[in-house]
Write a structure and sequence with these properties.
This protein has 114 residues and is mainly β. Helix content is 5%, strand content 45%. The strands form 4 sheets. The chain has a 4-stranded mixed beta sheet, with no helix packed on it.
Length: 114
């Protein structure tokens, strides 16, 4: 098994760089365009609604590299939403991508089969 911590794709401790692993998120999403390896314009106007009942337009959809350098995988189908303030990783979508989400006393880890 390869293991990756679910903290952020870029190794910093800035609050805007933190990813929150969310069991209720319907999709992965971030406002950070610089995190994407592959990015495509949204095919048609689409929106996400956040927990505070605000509506946010989806700009792009793409893949974000995740994990330690040399042992990266991609979080697929991440929504690029300029107006959100938190970066969300959907537990449901991680499981659909064949990875596992594990919690222990050190934090949260995303694991994939080697």
């Amino acid at each position: 098994m390869n293991s990756m911590t679910a903290s952020n794709p870029i190794n910093t401790s800035e609050p805007e760089d933190v990813c929150f692993v969310d069991s209720s998120a319907s999709n992965h999403m971030t406002s950070r365009e610089d995190w994407f390896k592959q990015l495509q314009k949204a095919e048609r106007p689409s929106y996400v609604e956040t927990g505070d009942d605000t509506i946010h337009p989806i700009q792009h959809v793409g893949n974000v590299p995740f994990g330690e350098e040399g042992n990266q995988t991609y979080i697929k189908n991440v929504l690029h939403v300029l107006t959100i303030t938190e970066n969300l990783v959907s537990i449901g979508h991680i499981l659909e991508q064949g990875m596992q989400v594990c919690f222990d006393d050190r934090g949260c880890f995303i694991e994939k089969e080697a």
